[in-house]
Amino acid sequence: MIVFWLAGYRQPVGSLTAKILVPRMISLVLLIVLGIHLTVAFKRTITQSALQSAIRRTLSSEVAQIPGARFVSVTLAQEEGATTGWVVVRTPQPLSPTQVGHLNDVVNRETRSHVVLYVRSVITAETSSNGYIYEPKFSPVNDP
After folding, report:
1. How far apart are CA 87 and CA 73, in angstroms?
2. Residue 17: pLDDT band with limits 50, 70, 90
């Protein structure tokens, strides 16, 4: 409507009645509602992206301190009002609950938020021609 108005397609001044103003007001209200919705969605996306970036940065530096461990990825999800982080780490042995708790505490402190971390340890080995650099160590299996 704005393009047509700027191009010179206008109703005569005498016919500004409800037939013209009501549809334009409805269009304007719908445009405002859509603008508000898109702004809120954009802000939520930016906030989520910034949080994920901060968590990725924090986990990269913390996991690098664990011998043989390499941070791979983090995926955030909203579950029951809480933010959950699904973390993948390549490591020669599974991370212990104590190590995951430490990572969780550091992430919460650095991001100033409350995130629940779940860590998936992907068991890997690093080998050179001289032998294992980090040899995989598997947890004992409890058979009933």
Report:
1. 6
2. low
Residue 88, both tokens: 């993948």
Q: How many residues does the chain have?
A: 144
Torsion angles phi and psi, residue 87, rounded to 5: -110, 135
CA–CA separation, 114 and 144 (whole Å): 38
Are 88 and 72 in contact, with CB atoms under 8 Å apart? Answer: yes
Of the two residues 5 and 14, the one the predictor is more confident about is 5
Element of type H or E holding 117: strand 115-123
User: Among residues 85, 97, 104, which one has the least CA distance to residue 139?
Assistant: 97
Query: For residues 103 and 119, is the Cβ–Cβ distance under 8 A?
Result: yes
Pure H helices in the chain: 2-6, 18-63, 97-111
Whole-structure pTM value:
0.70
Domains of the chain plus CATH, in order, are 17-134 (3.30.300.70)
